[in-house]
């Protein structure tokens, strides 16, 4: 019995249930296959029957029993980029009683791949930009959710910054050997018209840049960049977008690198780690999957 309980303890963690936050970034993660021999299989059947009973009992008192996910994994060709489930212990959730944010988030959540944590962080960063000169740029807009949220955040604080939303509208581009899951052409299921309608429906004005950024569309931006949300999924795309931005970034300007740390976005994580070496940028790794850089 002690051996059995010890095995159960190794396999499960008890926690209070939390609402799952969807993230398409994990969809392509390789399946983890566990092999079991005949003896282990008998053990396993017995354990899973008892486990089901324990789970039901726990549910009755408001607890959820879930399989522990503390495995360390990495892609074969990026052995230094290690991943393990991150579960911070703090619980303060200011987005839950921020009515302005919640109203805006409800308007865009069906049009974004970002979870509420990243949305709230974008919202609060833009709200702190103040009246400084420069524009807000998002590269990798897809269906417009996070981009329109940036515009709503700016409007909520009376910001009046020009907002540019750039996308190929032909999907992910410039993938290469640094990228693990993305091959090119993913996320082409959107149009500039859809983003335009979402902006209009929310009463915000944004300039939509259709084409590969910076190659085909950056020439249309003439002002300095105060805020960049770079959400492009691939190493070379992220590098080209950020390298174009850096000489144009205002002092105190912010770059948010989405995908930093997501399993399957090793190219962007690797590029973020290159950027960390720069002395003119302050770096913060937000465990929600954002690399944040502030121009000193
Ligand atoms: C993960 S999606 C963006 C998600 C979006 N921010 C949201 O709120 O859901 C990535 C997008 O980046 C776009 N993209 C990738 N590289 C690009 C580039 N160099 N220029 C413009 N768009 C790019 C793709 O077309 C795709 O729509």
Which keywords apply here?
Rossmann fold; binds S-adenosylmethionine; 17% strand; seven-stranded mixed beta sheet; two-stranded antiparallel ribbon; 8 helices; 9 strands; alpha/beta; 296 residues
What does this structure look like?
The protein has 296 residues and is of the alpha/beta class. The chain folds into 2 domains: 2-67, no CATH class; 94-295, Rossmann fold, CATH 3.40.50. The chain is built from 8 helices and 9 strands. The strands form 2 sheets. Strands 5-4-3-6-7-9-8 form a 7-stranded mixed beta sheet, sandwiched between helices. It has a two-stranded antiparallel sheet with strand order 1-2. Helix 3 packs antiparallel against helix 5. The radius of gyration is 22 Å and the shape is globular. The termini are far apart. The structure holds S-adenosylmethionine. S-adenosylmethionine (SAM) binds next to helix 5 and strand 4.
Distance between the termini: 60 Å
What is the CATH superfamily label of the largest domain?
Vaccinia Virus protein VP39
| CATH architecture annotation name of the largest domain | 3-Layer(aba) Sandwich
User: Regions with pLDDT < 50 over 5+ consecutive residues?
Assistant: 8-38
Largest sheet: 7 strands, mixed
Task: From the alpha carbons, calculate the radius of gyration and give it in angstroms.
Answer: 22 Å
Beta fraction? 15-25%
Shape: globular
Total number of β-strand segments? 9
